[in-house]
């Protein structure tokens, strides 16, 4: 007993009076303490220690532990060892010295019987108990033992055990310990539920505040009751400013009616969705959002509130609009060019002549259109370099740039529609020169030159000059207006506002095409000539 | 006796920026005995004729060198002159108010445009 007294240190301050009074005020105070204080514990171990301290105080035990079966059922993990228990340890196990709770203990020996036999046990002569297995090194020598099972839903899942009562445990201590057991279970489970609930809430909050959507809750008439930080960050409206119908301030004025109407359907529909613009607080710019609301229902299926998200779809919408524009423009271009091809075909056939000649003419015109289309669609701007346009046409018929052929002008590019008609015009001039003019006769010369000229009214013009010389015989002008002549004399002025001059004179063809030239195009020219 | 063309002596405005398409339209309309006003290629010219010429109907290309012909359509509607779009755009690519308008899709056959315009002009009790 001297050993025990030294372990114990001092008698418990609130030792209850002796006698079989399990429901006495001390026990009730202990239960109350467990239920009240245990929830404030920051860890399960702290909670366990509190329960053990109460049990030690009420029973007069010198030390105690609190353990729980593992899921595998044949091992025991410690939830707590009482302060007095730690103090009583006299061994050298470094884990114990650092208050490392022993886990995975085999369920056997005297304490094991509490769980295995599922009942409370008093052992006042442990040294001679048939199930004894001894104590670990450093464990205070055990003079007597009281173990109590802890049950959840009628099943023993844990236990606590008290050791070394100064005079041995009696039915009175057993009754006190059994009285405490349900309170200890309740405190532990409540603590675990609370921890799980807090973790779940934290996860939910991290999710709500971590997603890119703006999240809020509202009553059925669209009165907001809560907004997430994302909403505040996006709109610049504070939580207080947004509640009730305050959120409407962030909605585009044109979308406010729709946003209020959105709630009209709240009673009938299971879910609400709309697209509308919200004002970005920092930039003042409106962005498109897709807003959805889902009802939160009570156990009877009644809608108690609405949970809403607003998703930024501005970029998506822009891309969609851009895509629609691109598709529309593509359709327009394709259908337009087919209409033009159809028209050129009709005209080529109407010009008459042998089928081979009609076929050659048509193919040449189609190729010219195709070349321009290819170049125009290769660049983002859709512009076509004038020099390349001319060279491609001439090289296409085998003309070589030498002292008889000069191509000269500044570096300029034409818009696609201008390039299309200009390409055809160059094609018609080339075909004519090849058949009757400078490209047919060895003595013929061809000069193609262009320049941008500033007119007196400060507007600019692009002047392209096709000048054939040295063609011996005066070429016979076509009897009636052919396709090429109509193209140059009428199509260029009609669609592009050009002035054109086409002469079949002695020595070859002279063609001058004067096109209005936009000022910003002139800037592009200046850059290239300076460079 | 030959049946009179429903477009005979009707004044039809043609606004189309592509020369060859404009000429085809002109030719088709003349063949149907219509009187062609234009053709013109730009929004500005189209607006001028839409306001200042006596007209029975109009054919409008939607895309005039990048500009949209909607303003011309509005002026004509204000004068109760019926019109049809001639365009490579699908209906969805047009602004909402014009989606239900008369539209002839490019590429087109001359007959189609004549029929479309014929449908626009009310039959004023031929004797």
From TrEMBL, chain B:
| Record key words, sorted | Phosphoprotein
Q: Name one Pfam family in it.
A: Response_reg
Q: Which residues does this entry mark as bearing 4-aspartylphosphate?
A: 61
What sections of the sequence does the record tag as coiled-coil? Answer: none
Do you know which PROSITE patterns this protein is assigned to? Answer: RESPONSE_REGULATORY
Q: Does the keyword Protease apply?
A: no
Fetch the Gene3D superfamilies from UniProt: 3.40.50.2300
Q: Could you give a single Gene Ontology term from the biological process aspect?
A: phosphorelay signal transduction system
4Fe-4S is among the record's keywords: no
Return the InterPro entries for the record: Bact_response_regulator, CheY-like_superfamily, Sig_transdc_resp-reg_receiver
Q: Which PANTHER family match?
A: RESPONSE REGULATORY DOMAIN-CONTAINING PROTEIN, STRESS RESPONSE REGULATOR PROTEIN 1
- The name on file for this protein is Response regulatory domain-containing protein
């Amino acid at each position: 007993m001297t050993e025990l007294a030294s372990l114990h240190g001092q008698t418990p301050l609130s030792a209850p009076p002796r006698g079989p009074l399990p429901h006495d005020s001390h026990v009730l105070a202990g239960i109350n303490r467990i239920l009240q204080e245990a929830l404030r514990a920051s860890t399960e171990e702290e909670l366990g220690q509190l329960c053990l301290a109460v049990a030690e105080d009420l029973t007069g035990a010198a030390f105690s532990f609190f353990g729980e079966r593992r899921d595998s059922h044949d091992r025991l993990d410690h939830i707590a060892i009482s302060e007095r228990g730690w103090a009583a340890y006299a061994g050298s196990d470094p884990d114990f010295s650092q208050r490392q709770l022993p886990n995975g203990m085999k369920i056997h020996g005297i304490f094991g019987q509490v769980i295995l036999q599922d009942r409370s046990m008093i052992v006042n002569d442990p040294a001679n108990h048939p199930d004894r297995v001894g104590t670990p090194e450093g464990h205070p020598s055990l003079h007597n033992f009281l173990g109590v099972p802890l049950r959840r839903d009628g099943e023993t899942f844990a236990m606590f055990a008290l050791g070394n009562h100064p005079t041995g445990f009696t039915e009175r201590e057993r009754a006190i310990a059994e009285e405490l057991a349900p309170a200890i279970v309740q405190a532990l489970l409540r603590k675990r539920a609370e921890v799980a609930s807090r973790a779940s809430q934290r996860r939910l909050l991290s999710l709500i505040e971590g997603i890119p959507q703006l999240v809020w809750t509202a009553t059925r008439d669209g009165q907001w009751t809560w907004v997430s930080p994302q909403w505040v960050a996006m709109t610049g409206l504070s939580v207080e400013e947004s509640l009730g119908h305050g959120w409407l301030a962030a909605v585009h004025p044109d979308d406010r009616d729709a946003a209020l109407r959105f709630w009209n359907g709240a009673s009938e529909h299971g879910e609400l969705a709309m697209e509308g613009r919200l004002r970005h607080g920092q930039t003042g710019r409106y962005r498109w959002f897709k807003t959805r609301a889902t009802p939160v229902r009570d156990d009877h299926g009644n809608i108690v509130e609405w949970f809403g998200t607003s998703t930024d779809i501005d970029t998506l919408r822009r891309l969609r609009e851009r895509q629609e524009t691109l598709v529309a423009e593509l359709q327009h271009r394709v259908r337009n060019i087919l209409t033009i091809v159809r028209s050129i075909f009709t005209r080529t056939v109407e010009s008459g002549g042998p089928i081979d000649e009609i076929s050659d003419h048509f193919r040449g015109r189609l190729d010219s259109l195709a070349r321009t289309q290819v170049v125009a669609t290769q660049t983002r701007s859709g512009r076509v370099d004038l020099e390349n346009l001319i060279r491609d046409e001439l090289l296409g018929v085998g003309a070589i740039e030498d002292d008889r052929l000069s191509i000269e002008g500044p570096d300029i590019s034409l818009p696609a529609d201008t390039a299309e008609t200009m390409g055809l015009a160059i094609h018609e001039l080339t075909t004519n020169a090849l058949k009757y003019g400078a490209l047919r006769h060895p003595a013929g010369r061809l000069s193609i030159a262009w320049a941008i000229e500033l007119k007196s009214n400060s507007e600019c013009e692009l002047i392209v000059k096709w000048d054939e010389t040295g063609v011996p015989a005066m070429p016979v002008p076509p009897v009636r207006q052919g396709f090429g002549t109509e193209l140059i004399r009428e199509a260029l002025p009609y669609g592009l506002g050009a002035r054109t001059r086409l002469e079949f004179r002695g020595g070859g063809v002279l063609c001058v095409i004067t096109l209005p030239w936009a000022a910003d195009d002139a800037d592009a020219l200046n850059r290239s000539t300076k460079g | 006796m030959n049946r009179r063309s429903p477009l005979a002596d009707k004044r039809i405005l043609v606004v189309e920026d592509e020369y060859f398409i404009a000429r085809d339209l002109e030719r088709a309309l003349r063949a149907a005995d219509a009187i062609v006003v234009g053709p013109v290629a730009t929004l500005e010219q189209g607006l001028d004729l839409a306001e200042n010429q006596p007209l029975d109907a109009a054919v409008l290309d939607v895309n005039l060198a990048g500009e949209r012909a909607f303003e011309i359509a509005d002026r004509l509607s204000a004068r109760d002159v019926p019109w049809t779009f001639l365009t490579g755009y699908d209906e969805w690519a047009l602004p909402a108010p014009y989606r239900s308008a008369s539209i002839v899709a490019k590429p087109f056959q001359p007959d189609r445009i004549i029929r479309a315009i014929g449908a626009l002009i009310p039959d004023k009790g031929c004797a």
